[in-house]
Amino acid sequence: MASTIDTARSERPANPRSRVILASLIGTTIEFYDFYVYATAAVLVFPHLFFPAGDETVALLASFAVFGAAMVARPLGAVFFGHLGDRRGRKATLVGALLTMGIATFLIGCLPTYPSVGWFAPFLLVVLRLAQGFALGGEWSGAALVATENAPKGKRAIYGTFPQLGAPLGFIIANGLFLLIAALLPSDDPSRPSLAFLSWGWRIPFLFSAVMVIVGLWVRLSLVESTAFEKTVKRGHVQKLPLAAAFRDHWRELVLGTFYMLATYVLFYLMTTFSLSYGRAAVTAPLPGLGYDYRSFVLMMIAGVCFFGVFTFLSGPWAERWGRRRTLIVVTLGIIAFGLLWVPMLAGGFVGVMAWLILGFSLMGMTFGPMGALLPELFPSNVRYTGSGIAYNVSSILGAAVAPFIAVALWSHGGGSPFWVGVYLSAMGVLTLVAMLMGSETRDVDIER
C-alpha cells in the first residue's frame, strides 16, 4: 500500500497545470511588455529627449544602438541566472530575474532627460537598459523550463507555446497603453508626440510595469520545483560549473540552438521595431516610408500581432504532430520567401501593407512557438537553464541587437526602399535553415535526463 501511494505521488505533477501555464505566461508577458515599451519609446520619445537636437536619423540610430545594448548584456544574464537555475533551482532564479527586470523598467520612467542633465541622461538610460537585458537573460529560459519540465507527456511543444504567447500579449498591452495615453494627450502635429506626452506621458507605461511585476511575483512564489530538477539533485548530477559543462559537453547544441533562433530574432525585431519607424516615416522625409500617422499604424500592427498570437498557439500542436525540426524547416523557407517579397507587398497600398504585417507576424508565431520546447530539449536537466539561455540570448546579439540598426542603415542605403532590409531577413533565414538541416529531431527526448 505504501509503495502504491509513493508511486502515485511521484507521478502527480509538481505544479498544477493552471499554475504552470499562468507562471510561464505572465513572466514573459511582463518581459515583452517591458521590451516593447522601450522599443516604442525608442522610436517616439528617446530620439527627442535623450540625445542632442540635430539630425533626426542620427538620433534614431543612437536610440536603436541603446536598444541593442541590452542584447549584449543578455548572454551575461543567461550565464548568471543559468548558473543559479541549474544549481539552486528554477523558482528562486525566476523570481530574481523578474524583480531585476521590473526595477530597471520602473527606474527608466524616472530618468531625467538630456535638456536637464546633458549626457548623463543617455548614460543612465544605457545602464538601466543593460540591467533590463541582464534580467532578460535569465527570464525566458526559466519560463520555458517551467512550462516544458512540468508538461504532460506528449504535450511539451503545446505547453512550450505559453511562455511564447507573452510576446504578442506584451505587445498589445504596451502599445495599447501608449495609444491610450496618446489619445488622452493629443498632438497638433500627427508626425510628432504632444508636448505633454514628451514631458511626462511617456513615463506612465514604464511606471505601470511595477503593477505587473507584483502580480508576476505573486504567481511565481506559489510554484514548487519541477520533478526534472529534483531528480537531478537526488541523483547527485548537479554541476558545480554548469557553464563549463555546457561548453565542454554540449557545444554543438549551443551553436545549433543559437542559429535556430537567428531568423526568429531578426524577423521579430524588424516587424516590431523597424516597421514602426518605416510605417510612420513620411514620403517626403529624409528616409521616406509609408507615411501613416502613429495611431493608425500601431492599430494596423496590433491587428497583425493578433495573428502572431493565434499562430504561436497553433504551432504547438503542429510541432507535436510533425516534429519541431520539420515544422521549423517549412516555416523558415516561408521566412526566406517573405523577405524577398517586401517591395511588391508594400507597393500594394493599405491592402499590401496589411498583408505584409499579417504574413510577417503569422510567420513570427509559427517560428517562435516551437522554440519554447526545442531549445530546452537540446540539453540535459543539469545544464538546461544555462544551455537554453545562452543559445537564446547569444542569438539575440546576432539577430535582435543589430537588426533595427542594420535595417535603418540598409533603408538609408537603398534610398528609402525596404528591398535590402528584406534581403537581409532572407539571408538570416538561410543561415537558420542550414542549422535546421544539420540538427536532429528532439520531440521524443527524455526531458528528465
From TrEMBL:
Residues passing through the membrane, by range: 20-46, 58-81, 93-114, 120-146, 167-185, 197-219, 254-276, 296-316, 328-347, 353-378, 390-413, 419-439
Residue ranges of domain Major facilitator superfamily (MFS) profile in the record: 20-441
InterPro entries noted in UniProt: MFS, MFS_dom, MFS_trans_sf, Sugar_transporter_CS
Membrane topology of this protein: Multi-pass membrane protein
A GO-annotated cellular component: plasma membrane
Any single Pfam family the record assigns to this protein: MFS_1
GO molecular function terms noted in the UniProt entry: transmembrane transporter activity
Keywords: Cell membrane, Membrane, Transmembrane, Transmembrane helix, Transport
Keyword Cell membrane listed: yes
Localization in the cell: Cell membrane
Record carries keyword Ribonucleoprotein: no
PROSITE patterns tied to this protein: MFS, SUGAR_TRANSPORT_1
Descriptive protein name: Metabolite-proton symporter
